[in-house]
Design brief:
Helix content: 25-40%
Strand order of the largest sheet: 2-3-4-6-5
Structural class: alpha+beta
Number of domains: 2
Oligomer: single chain
CATH topology of the largest domain: OB fold (Dihydrolipoamide Acetyltransferase, E2P)
CATH superfamily of the largest domain: Nucleic acid-binding proteins
Length: 283
């Protein structure tokens, strides 16, 4: 839905001076727009103005849903509407024959209606309807909201408004609080203590994964140990002494050592030296 100004004003050039009598014939609005304009009128001279205009429009167009019907007779109706931006009281008096009387009976609670009229602030804020039409399609609702935005833009341009592109505001900083700066993140370098903890953990894991001495490996370790002892004396080692020495470097059980020592005696590699508990290498 388009709108125009009276007196044939079709050009919008800097040379053309706006005249106080220029008025918008028809202006699509929302309930929220009406409420904002009414608040501004209370502070000013009482005249309803929209989008920086110096004068109020002749006709306002409001499209909304009927929330509640308070009175509905043959020649008058009073009801409340809501368009998603707010709710507003509406009054409609049929003064123009049968067509308006039919329009009075054409809506009910939940119906969407198209209202032509004026906003009135007395005795209470309400929309005074001069013409009512039922909305026949949901497309009319979307189209009306587009027309509201389009009309607002045209009015601002006509009234000499020069806007700037919207920008994101800077974050607020409290007094005395240092301004936060964004710095690239860099990973922390590991300290000497961290390296030490890693090394100890690795050593612990290595110890836990040592394979116990057994079989040929245990036989070689026992013979090597007994050979070194035989170069010192003929007494040799007892089984607990062999276990103690081997367990310092390897994981070995006393039962495995004891069995290996007796097996080596049977093989003729070792013999009992001073008593049954000491063994020495048979050279």
């Amino acid at each position: 839905m388009s709108f125009a100004t009276q007196n044939g004003a079709t050009q919008n050039t800097p040379e053309r001076q706006r005249r106080p009598e220029d008025r918008t014939n028809l202006l699509p609005v929302t309930v929220r727009l009406l409420e904002s304009a009414n608040e501004a009128a209370k502070i000013g001279d009482g005249e309803l103005r929209f989008h920086g205009s110096e004068t109020s429009p002749n006709i306002l167009l409001l499209l909304a849903q009927v929330e509640a019907v308070h009175a509905q007779q043959k020649n008058m109706a009073e009801f409340t509407v809501c368009d998603g931006t707010g709710s507003l009281r509406v009054r409609f008096f049929a003064t123009d024959g049968e067509a308006q009387e039919k329009a009075l009976q054409s809506f009910s609670t939940g119906s969407w209606v198209k209202l032509f009229g004026q906003f009135r602030s007395a005795p209470t804020a309400h929309f005074s309807v001069s013409m009512l039409r039922p909305v026949k399609s949901a497309d009319e609702i979307s189209h009306h909201m587009i027309e509201v935005a389009h009309s607002a833009l045209k009015c601002w341009q006509h009234n000499g408004y020069s806007g700037t592109d919207p920008t994101t505001p800077a974050p607020k900083v409290k007094p005395g609080e240092p301004e936060k700066t964004t710095e690239p993140w860099t990973p922390e370098k590991p300290t000497a203590e961290a390296h030490m903890e890693v090394d100890m953990e690795a050593a612990k894991m290595a110890t836990e994964t040592v394979v116990p001495l057994e079989g040929s490996a245990l036989r070689s370790a026992v013979l090597e140990l007994m050979k070194a002892k035989a170069e010192e004396d003929d007494v040799g080692y007892s089984i607990p002494e062999v276990c103690s020495i081997l367990q310092k470097k390897s994981k070995v059980t006393s039962s495995a050592v004891e069995k290996m020592m007796h097996d080596l005696v049977d093989e003729g590699e070792l013999f009992n030296s001073t008593d049954d508990e000491h063994f020495s290498l048979l050279v």
